[in-house]
Amino acid sequence: MVIINFSNTKREAFLRGFEKGLAAPVMLFGHFQAPNIDPIPQVTIQSIEIGEAMENDWKAIGTDLRNVIEHHGEEYTSKTTS
Fold it and tell me: Is pLDDT larger for residue 13 or for residue 82?
């Protein structure tokens, strides 16, 4: 990555370049390694018809709504009917 600072004087620019030049041989012996990344799990697509998948989704949504109403329905209706 190169960042050029045009506000430097000629002397500052020269010293910065000189220091980077002195550091260049050290970079030849540097050890750079990318971090280990966890493997991404393989995704498998189920062989199911679209209509059947939508039916299953709506059944799951209906079951979730029914469970919420059974759990919180009485609490909500008792607070609103005063």
Answer: 13
